[in-house]
Specification:
about 0% strand, mainly alpha, about 450 residues
Amino acid sequence: MTNPDPVSGSPDKEPATEAQEARTEARANPPAPAGDTERAVPATATRQPPAAEPRPTLGRLFLDNLWAANTVTVTVLAVLLAMLVGAVLIIVSDPEVLATYGYITARPADAFNASWTVVSEAYANLFKGAIFDPDAVGFTAAMGPISETLTYTAPLVFTGLAVALAFRGGLFNIGAQGQATIGVILAAVAGFALPLPPGVHLLVALLAGALGGALWGFVPGILKARTGAHEVINTIMLNYVAVYFLSWIIVQSGVQNPNRSDAISKPVESSAQLPRLLGDNLRVHAGILVAVLATWFIAWLLNRSTLGFELRAVGENPDAARTAGISVTKTYVLVMVISGLLAGLGGSNMVLGSTANALTPLVIAQIGFDGILVALLGRVKPWGVLLAALLFGALQAGGNRMQSYSGISLELVTVLQALIVIFIAAPAMVKAIFQLRAARAARLQTSLAKGW
């Protein structure tokens, strides 16, 4: 019996006819159901690959990511929100402007013009006092605002780094104020009590201030490591001890200025003072250069050194770090010692720089507590801390001019600082107000929850 459908090309069979070839192809490719046009394509037809989407340009990527809840966007918008709320407070605190709102329905232009005038004048003076005054004549007047900003910035960098470093190690150092106080005491005493040549005298005074802060950081560090005592309680208590010790030592014989009857120490010798960078008429001094160097060192320590790796590991999970063979006790002590050393250098800047040249009960101001805000605003990252300190220094420098020329209370500048920190610490609020992209905001909130 012969095969009705011989295979085409077989040497012992006859060639297949066209009808047989059609039946063979029909069996291999059965007809597709109605409406299924994709399966109706013959098997011999080649399917074209989908066209590749063009890669977005750099400008497109920038525009897509501009309105996203990344660190830069949230920070800028937080400052903007703080300034808007501050503008409302400026208007409310001015009785003459408030009086125009009594007849706003009759003449609304009066209220709006008065509000714009007082707010724009206040913020213009803030800018002129912190960055640049277009009406300034001469080098000294032109560089004065920047000089004041950098002068206020230098000690804040050190105290901000002190808080940030401890935070990265899993500790909350509230004692930067006390550590800076001990640092300013020892730096001042070394500055007027030790007869040393220039250069060496400055180095010894800075070293004395750093050692004083390190000692005041060692105490809560060893208590935390050995006994588990909470560092927040210990550092807060040590702040009071340092403040009262400063008040006591100023009036002691050999420390108090013999030519004065009030609580003030002998002045620091000129050989122990930080040199001015822009001449004697401008206050900016070499402390800002030391602050930048300290920022670079802390960034290297955290990201490039073995100690920094151990510090970050302990800060993330002390139990896992201990299991990996890292000494948590040693790390806690080292973190607090280095943190105190930085705060002590910040205190030294207050008396060895141009802010003051003698000890007074208020010589340290609030640089330790402001350092906490600077660290939080800088997201406890070294270079972020430097930028945050620069912003706070600008607010303080500009606030002085704003108070003098616009009659705005200096406390309003403190309110602006607090508002900035509030909005920075609440990225969900900024996202909701400005409708930022949710995906980027979610990543930002996750990083905040993990300690920034």
